[in-house]
Prior knowledge:
With 1767 residues, this protein is of the alpha+beta class. The radius of gyration is 62 Å and the shape is extended.
Amino acid sequence: xxxxxxxxxxxxxxxxxxxxxxxxxxxxxxxxxxxxxxxxxxxxxxxxxxxxxxxxxxxxxxxxxxxxxxxxxxxxxxxxxxxxxxxxxxxxxxxxxxxxxxxxxxxxxxxxxxxxxxxxxxxxxxxxxxxxxxxxxxxxxxxxxxxxxxxxxxxxxxxxxxxxxxxxxxxxxxxxxxxxxxxxxxxxxxxxxxxxxxxxxxxxxxxxxxxxxxxxxxxxxxxxxxxxxxxxxxxxxxxxxxxxxxxxxxxxxxxxxxxxxxxxxxxxxxxxxxxxxxxxxxxxxxxxxxxxxxxxxxxxxxxxxxxxxxxxxxxxxxxxxxxxxxxxxxxxxxxxxxxxxxxxxxxxxxxxxxxxxxxxxxxxxxxxxxxxxxxxxxxxxxxxxxxxxxxxxxxxxxxxxxxxxxxxxxxxxxxxxxxxxxxxxxxxxxxxxxxxxxxxxxxxxxxxxxxxxxxxxxxxxxxxxxxxxxxxxxxxxxxxxxxxxxxxxxxxxxxxxxxxxxxxxxxxxxxxxxxxxxxxxxxxxxxxxxxxxxxxxxxxxxxxxxxxxxxxxxxxxxxxxxxxxxxxxxxxxxxxxxxxxxxxxxxxxxxxxxxxxxxxxxxxxxxxxxxxxxxxxxxxxxxxxxxxxxxxxxxxxxxxxxxxxxxxxxxxxxxxxxxxxxxxxxxxxxxxxxxxxxxxxxxxxxxxxxxxxxxxxxxxxxxxxxxxxxxxxxxxxxxxxxxxxxxxxxxxxxxxxxxxxxxxxxxxxxxxxxxxxxxxxxxxxxxxxxxxxxxxxxxxxxxxxxxxxxxxxxxxxxxxxxxxxxxxxxxxxxxxxxxxxxxxxxxxxxxxxxxxxxxxxxxxxxxxxxxxxxxxxxxxxxxxxxxxxxxxxxxxxxxxxxxxxxxxxxxxxxxxxxxxxxxxxxxxxxxxxxxxxxxxxxxxxxxxxxxxxxxxxxxxxxxxxxxxxxxxxxxxxxxxxxxxxxxxxxxxxxxxxxxxxxxxxxxxxxxxxxxxxxxxxxxxxxxxxxxxxxxxxxxxxxxxxxxxxxxxxxxxxxxxxxxxxxxxxxxxxxxxxxxxxxxxxxxxxxxxxxxxxxxxxxxxxxxxxxxxxxxxxxxxxxxxxxxxxxxxxxxxxxxxxxxxxxxxxxxxxxxxxxxxxxxxxxxxxxxxxxxxxxxxxxxxxxxxxxxxxxxxxxxxxxxxxxxxxxxxxxxxxxxxxxxxxxxxxxxxxxxxxxxxxxxxxxxxxxxxxxxxxxxxxxxxxxxxxxxxxxxxxxxxxxxxxxxxxxxxxxxxxxxxxxxxxxxxxxxxxxxxxxxxxxxxxxxxxxxxxxxxxxxxxxxxxxxxxxxxxxxxxxxxxxxxxxxxxxxxxxxxxxxxxxxxxxxxxxxxxxxxxxxxxxxxxxxxxxxxxxxxxxxxxxxxxxxxxxxxxxxxxxxxxxxxxxxxxxxxxxxxxxxxxxxxxxxxxxxxxxxxxxxxxxxxxxxxxxxxxxxxxxxxxxxxxxxxxxxxxxxxxxxxxxxxxxxxxxxxxxxxxxxxxxxxxxxxxxxxxxxxxxxxxxxxxxxxxxxxxxxxxxxxxxxxxxxxxxxxxxxxxxxxxxxxxxxxxxxxxxxxxxxxxxxxxxxxxxxxxxxxxxxxxxxxxxxxxxxxxxxxxxxxxxxxxxxxxxxxxxxxxxxxxxxxxxxxxxxxxxxxxxxxxxxxxxxxxxxxxxxxxxxxxxxxxxxxxxxxxxxxxxxxxxxxxxxxxxxxxxxxxxxxxxxxxxxxxxxxxxxxxxxxxxxxxxx
Length: 1767
């Protein structure tokens, strides 16, 4: 014995999948899972030795138990999980493979033999796939980290085990085209996509697919590096891409766009990389990239399939689709591959090439093709439980689809076995009931019904001696009794030949419930049948030859199971288990008791109720308390032991107290709603066992009914707890769903929620299940959804049969197959023989209508019908009595009337009491009001119905058809039937923006602010640039009159010159404006070309590939719709006008009739005075036909309505469904007969005339009387003839008008027919435009966006250029100011300054100006205002710090004024340095702004170019759309009516049958074109002559232009020379001419004259003083000369004395030589400085002279006068 090994194989190797992964749009990829360098060769395959016998899962057996491992032996699998995706694979031509729970079933198609492979994990199998070579197949399992097992075929041995691909289960696996790789995808929670090198058991690539359920993944058969996966509302496209880190998986999620998101069950990859997938609604989706290119449907918008399209196949140039509608269709592959949407619709319509209808109740979900070459045989999985063999060759000899196997579809809802044979019956919601022989392992028979089966039970032997009676319940509440018999034995008895080994025959059908029947059970004696339903009722039937209803009871909840008490119990009771947690026990009803008459409900039936209350939380709590007590006891013992040891070592110690905080106990939890009851059974009378699901799973609860049962208490208010429980190992999440006992009750077989079978061994008579300890368990059904709800033993306890929700049915034998055959000694089960007389019995009537009444409902209806009949009989008796009294009263009234008047009783006397009459009147009025109130709804309904009918038949037409008939002929004319305009025509939308791009290219409103900031402190710098401010000029100088007059004349002369200049400028501007561009064309030529294009016609046909639709001729949907609406309005206007004329003609006919009637009366009166022989028959008067006044047909008189009501009441009841048409026809015939019976006026008048004429006798008259009579006759004859002539002329005129109007209408009909053709053409064009509308609108929006962007860029670029120009001007101004600052510095130094070099270095010193950090708030500024100049030059200014940038200058301190240098000059140099640095900072900032603006301009220029190119691209796209639209329009057919003489396209002098090559032209236009050819020849010659003349003129003008240019150059040189002579430079003559007199200048001149006069007077005074000073100087000079002469003599004497002294003191004079030499050198240096300054002054004077000679130049600032040299 060994423990359960499920999942152990998967845990042997470590998982190579990372612990966590994140999903992104293109999915984060994982690196390769193999240890190999990039591009290195793979290692050779390793040898793996696996044995299937060691790996497959085995049963779990409780330790130390005597249960054998092979307790159950798998015998056969009768089911097929057809709802599982991809559950069909083909291993060879005759072997199919599919999953059945925990088994792989290999089915031989020909012999129907099965081979089985158990899963290795014991937790189920997720998916299977076959290798392309069919030598291997893979089974992907379920469980904790499941494995993929690769088996060899046909050896069926484990070849490879792939570990670690997912956490819980695999949902799909698939090999690639060559079988080298295997792709797998996991299910929840990781959804891991893994690519395996399966032969090496290595993971190649792995990543998370998506966070949704994935149905399928596959390799592309055409590109091995591409994969596709699909699933819930998604499809994803994968690519194995090589990166620098290795091979990666890159995924692209498919975008549905405007298509609704759908689950994608199937798809197919196309050779060019596209993918075709299915959809929920049945159409095909063509994916290109990761987007839907087009949705493919059938013509007229029909879906490709009626339901999902799951599998696909691409074979022999056609794409085959298998739909859930059971149809296989083949589509043209090239048509699908090249499909594209047209217009605004994203659909592409096409029809399939081939089609095969497999069946009407078929849902194809998976297909596999036979591996044989040139074989078109496919095997298909049908989700409705079948496996089909299809031949898809689509030829005339193709056989019909063959159903190889047919199983139950979906969960099994009922299973039971025969009590006498090895027969098993099952039912499911697929509406079928199957009977199996599980001994011979085959299906015997199948019966199908209109509804699905929900319950089944095999009748015991007490009921059916033959053991062939089945009771089945269905989802519509019907219970059917079915008899099983051997039809071949019936053939022996009756002589009829019936095929098959068994047959089911309906014996009886009844409907006790209105909801699905969930349980059926026979009473232990077989006398009563109980049926339970989800409608909370249990019905009892008396068992016999015919099952008669006894009654029903209501229970608190839907019935889950029914269990009758066994024979060991004294009382016969029924245990009812409800899903809601209620248990009801009922006493068996007495079939012989008196049946109720009004209802079948058994209200007096004794019952007991039990409502389960959860005790699991309390059990867990008690277990926790016991566990904690045990732990405390162990800790206490350990503590006492430590205390004893410590006492022995250290003596007495204080007792340790350990206080521990106890954890909170688990709370008591009661689930609400209560947990559902799964199953149960009796243990002892009044006691029962329950298996409960949900929260309370894990235990079997022993319950009993309480003694105090209050019948009036609501069962939902009860709270009953089990008195005992039995824990079930490993079943907290896996409750027991079904329980069955062996016949000796020593084996308890349980069906678990997880699909396991558990077998417990019991002791005999153990009703309390105390011996239920050891068990044997085996995983059989699917562990996720294969809940094992039905399990039972065979009649001989040799077999165990199971059925689960996964649709699988298994049979197990308790004996090995060899021993089983020996013990049974037979190979098949015995089928019951048919009953005697069965062949003579009629087939029982079935209940096929799901809405049929149930037994109780029918009973209630019968009772209501009985009461209604009784009431009708009473009413009829009362009415009969009233009629008799009324007759008697009438007799008395007649008798009273026959009496004499004095004896006759008055009406008042006959009344017993007046109040009776008043009361009767009040009652009558009240009843009338009630009747009206009751009939108000019907009246309103009838009025609404009448209005609807009128709106539909009469008001829906603006004018009905009126036919006017001629009087004297058969000509007639009818109006047009015009439908009424239901709504106002929709206004046309604005069309200016629809067909043309947006031309709004206006600049952006407002311009952005300049990025260049104004110069900081500009005014201040300008002021500081001047060393001295200018001296203000005194005001108040008065000019002379002559000067004022001269100023006025100068101003007038300047104004005249300015006006002359402006006029000349305007003339030049006009002349230049009129000058044509070099590429400009002559406007006349342009106009001529335009006119030629418009009048000559299209030089290029519209079918030409290079045809460009002109801008004004481009059409769109709105324009075409407007054109179509205008045409419809014109048609309607014409028809309306014609209708008005016809109606007017009809009205004139009515007036004519009245006029003719009057004239006929007048003629009658005239002829009454004439003799009979002079009478002329009056013309017969016409009548207005009904079709001429159809509006009168809608008007009915009350008499007609009453007649219609009478006819309707006389109509027989069997004609109620035929409608009222026959009544209307009958009424019409009666009215016509009445009209015929009415004598005509003319006939009656003639008869009366004849009678009068015959009656009257002619009297005798005199001659005078005769003469007068003759005169009177002549007048009357004239009047008679006039009347007859007028009547005839009126009729003829009317007929003429009708014929003329008829001719006009015929012509209008011809025009309308042409308009209809035009309308059809316009409508076709409109549909064509609608196809292009969406595409055109998108392109138009794109083009408008590009134009808008381009127009928005232009003002930005212009603004940036303007800003750049402004910044460059500012920069130039700053450079000029810098030059002026240098000039100021040079002027401040003066010529030959000895500190010039030092001050120049100071001025040009490079200083880095660093922003000083702001001082902290807590620091105080302690700078005194009286700091000296040295402290100010510590380079700690308020705003800047200065640091020297040259290391060489650090040796010299330029911040200190050198000795000998003027401090004022040094300080002035420092101020100029500050201004220079400020200017440099401003220039740097301006340069930065200029560079930024240049970059911005470049960026805008590039952007403008890109936008221009994109705009041109958009325009080209629009042109392509217009051209394509025009080409589509060229394909439309146009209707042109032609006469035969207009057709000149002849072949052999006859009109050909095919006129498609012909061209339709207007004859006038053709003649004009032919004449135009000759005109063009003449114009061509004229144009050549004009060209020659123009060329000669062009050469002459070029020579004249050259001469004029040379002359202009000579004149300009002369003008410049004259300006230099007169003004000393080039001046602006225009400015000079406009120079007017300046009052300021005149005032300055006047001021100059006044100052000159004052200065002359002052000079004279100074001259006198100079003369006096000169005389004094002469005197002083004379005296000085005398002094010098004396001094010279003394000097000579001194020299002589010195020479003598030198001679004597030679050695004493050396010390004075150095001092003298130094004095001489100082004098020389001083003279050099004087020379240098004088040269500077001379240079300054020369510069001043030069500046004065050039007017307008900038003069240097005035310089300080240089100090004179004093020796």
